[in-house]
Design brief:
The chain is an alpha/beta fold. It is built from 17 helices and 15 strands. The longest helix is centred in the first third of the chain and has 63 residues. The termini are far apart.
């Protein structure tokens, strides 16, 4: 008995540590499971609530916004498919239990009450913006808008443009643009203002020079601002149910190239989306200048042009654009310029042909015009004659060389007939030839597919020539060629000799500043074309028309 008790006690003492360990491990695991259970339960409860709230906003905005006005921007591009699949599942599992209740709640509210519960983007289906500037933040660059036909961004109903804050983009060094959607009031006079009344737009104010080169001296500013209450804005004298656009003339207006580069092309970019249903409010109105291009202005807008500086009326609109411009010189880049319709320079030239009723949309095609048993018809070439600097000193020889290879040549200087007649004449040519200068601007009236041959003066001016005319010509659908004048063909050779830096080192002249470049290579140079050297260019131009 004693030995048995002793053995039992020994066994009990030997197993005691193991039992203690089992208990400790069990308690530890139990605690872990309890902790995990509490964490999962809490997270599930929070997630379900968040998903239900997100589901409420998503379904509500989907019901409120027509498909054609919903937001669409690149940042969503990588997420759209996964989000769509996720919400299909979520709607099957969660939204079914809540959608009907929300619909009943929504039916009991007025449209205005419902709009107040949603963000401005959900009401309008977009954010008003003037983005695509190079200096914008990356997030704003990625924002895009599905633009309506009438507003180029907004709603088809002028009276229901959602209140949105005015966005004035002043980050680009060349020009500023503001877009105001909603109750917008334009008051002219010496202190012209454009005011958006919106309780959602934070009060803010900008001084905008509505010209395409805001850095120029002598421009006049328009004050653009947003206010929360109608009492803080001028009271409407008249109300129009169309958009308006505030622009400024002046600056370099009057130089033929700048007329198009600084005004007419930017005006097309900003206003073409409205299809004529826009009113122009013009700062520094130049009636004689507008009259010259009256067909273009008449095609841009079917409404009266307002002299904004001398206007004593408070004009109210549902949408106003302040300012205009283009990213590149004398052209449209649809990837950078926000046209509201993806317009290009080809569209601009088509627009001009329509405005001036120009008949030719394509140049001659030599392979199709040879009559049976007869000689082929000669393509028409215009040589632009300059009378100040950069004259072609041996123009007669150049004409003879062009005629020898098969062109019918016409020489033209400044237009003496009406501008309508002049544009029709320009449209009749298949090839345009001229030394770098404003006269080459007339290439906008050539038929698509015609040839532009630019003679580039001596002095490493090829990059300037291509920026001003070469690249724009290609964007117009023209076949662009250039002929670079050699030192021996420049009148500067006779003035300075071949050892002078003006001749020997044009790069150094460029480094010394634009003033010297403009004075010597542009203002004080004429050219004497070596016709033998020029002949291959003429033959190539002819070949382009085959």
């Amino acid at each position: 008995m004693v030995r048995t008790e002793s053995k039992s006690a020994r066994n009990t003492n030997r197993s005691s540590p193991w039992k203690s360990n089992y208990v400790a491990y069990g308690l530890l695991l139990g605690s872990v499971f309890v902790l995990l259970y509490l964490m999962v339960s809490t997270q599930f409860s929070y997630s379900q609530k968040a998903l239900l709230e997100l589901d409420r906003a998503t379904v509500d905005s989907a019901e409120t916004i027509p498909a054609k006005h919903r937001r669409n921007h690149p940042r969503q591009g990588m997420q759209d498919h996964s989000i769509t699949d996720f919400w299909i599942t979520l709607e099957e599992e969660v939204a079914k239990a809540h959608t009907e209740q929300r619909r009943q709640e929504k039916q009991g509210e007025s449209e205005q009450q419902w709009a107040q519960k949603n963000s401005i983007e959900e009401q309008s289906g977009h954010e008003m913006k003037s983005d695509n500037w190079e200096e914008k933040s990356q997030s704003e660059k990625e924002e895009t808008v599905e633009e309506s036909k009438q507003f180029g961004g907004g709603t088809d109903d002028y009276n229901n443009v959602a209140d949105a804050k005015p966005i004035c983009d002043t980050s680009f060094g060349k020009y500023d643009v503001c877009e105001l959607a909603g109750d917008t009031r334009a008051r002219g006079g010496s202190g012209a203002t454009v005011t958006l009344v919106s309780p959602r737009a934070p009060p803010k104010e900008w001084e905008i020079k509505p010209y395409s080169r805001k850095y120029l001296d002598g421009l006049k500013a328009v004050t653009v601002k947003s206010v929360p209450n109608p009492e803080n804005a001028p009271q409407c004298t008249t109300r129009l149910n169309i958009p308006a656009m505030v622009i400024e003339l002046g600056g370099l207006t009057g130089n033929y190239w700048h007329d198009f580069t600084d005004v007419l092309v930017p005006l097309f970019i900003g206003a073409r989306r409205f299809n004529g249903e826009v009113q122009l409010l013009v700062v520094n109105l130049l009636p004689f200048w507008v009259d010259r291009y009256k067909r273009i202005f008449g095609k841009i807008s079917r409404h009266e042009i307002v002299d904004f500086e001398n206007d004593d009326v408070v004009r109210c609109y549902p949408h106003v654009v302040v300012g205009y411009g283009s990213r590149k010189e004398f052209t449209i880049d649809p990837s950078l310029d926000e046209t509201g319709g993806g317009y290009t320079m080809v569209d601009f030239t088509k627009f001009l042909r329509s405005a001036y009723s120009l008949p030719r949309h394509r140049p001659i095609k030599l392979s199709e015009v040879r009559p049976a048993g007869g000689s082929r018809r000669r393509p028409r070439m215009i040589i632009l004659e300059r009378t100040n600097s950069r004259k072609i000193l041996n123009l007669a020889e150049v004409i003879a060389a062009a005629e020898a290879v098969g062109f019918k040549v016409i020489v033209a200087g400044r237009p003496r007939a009406s501008y309508d007649v002049f544009t029709r004449e320009m449209n009749s040519f298949d090839v345009m030839v001229g030394v770098h200068g404003a006269g080459l601007t007339n290439c906008v009236f050539l038929p698509t597919g015609a040839v532009l041959l630019q003679i580039v003066p001596y002095g490493r001016l090829e990059e300037i020539a291509r920026t001003d005319f070469g690249n724009p010509a290609r964007d117009m659908g023209l076949r662009y060629m250039e002929y670079s004048v050699a030192a021996e063909e420049s009148s500067l050779m006779n003035v300075f000799g071949k050892e002078h830096p003006i001749i020997k080192d044009p790069a150094a002249v460029h480094m010394s500043g634009w003033g010297n470049v403009a004075e010597w290579y542009l203002a004080k140079q004429d050219v004497r074309i070596n016709v033998e050297r020029f002949k291959p260019s003429l033959l190539q131009a002819l070949k382009q028309l085959q």
